[in-house]
Design brief:
Length: about 120
């Protein structure tokens, strides 16, 4: 339960374990590529090569590493594309789909931030 800030409002920043929860989230999502991979997979499952092209200029080695981390956090799943090939397909999991509102908010905030910075530079 969060601590009362005034008569009618609770503040989530005062709840026990708040910073541990933030640390857990950042551990799953930190880095240059993880959110981009998740965002790409929100548009549908992709083969490794298609995902690499979608997120260029990520290297194959980095993409492979990040996908393994995301799998470990149960955000991405990996499936064999067919029985005749070793081609793998990656998809967002149900748990990973819970990040969609966060990513949409980050996109909106990034757009707002970019406009603020550009406006500041123009003055």
């Amino acid at each position: 339960m969060t601590k009362k800030v005034d008569n009618d409002h609770y503040c989530p920043f005062h709840s026990p374990g708040t910073f541990l929860k933030i640390q857990d989230a950042l551990e799953c999502l930190q880095g240059k590529w993880k959110l981009q991979i998740i965002a790409a997979l929100l548009t549908g499952p992709k083969r490794f090569r298609d995902l690499a092209n979608y997120i260029a200029p990520i290297t194959d080695r980095m993409l492979s590493k990040e996908l393994k981390v995301l799998e470990g956090h149960l955000l991405v799943s990996r499936h064999k594309k067919s029985t005749y090939s070793i081609e793998m397909e990656y998809a967002i999991t149900k748990h990973g789909m819970s990040l969609k509102p966060l990513i949409e908010n980050l996109i909106d905030w990034g757009d707002l931030h970019r406009k603020e910075v550009i406006d500041k530079l123009r003055k």
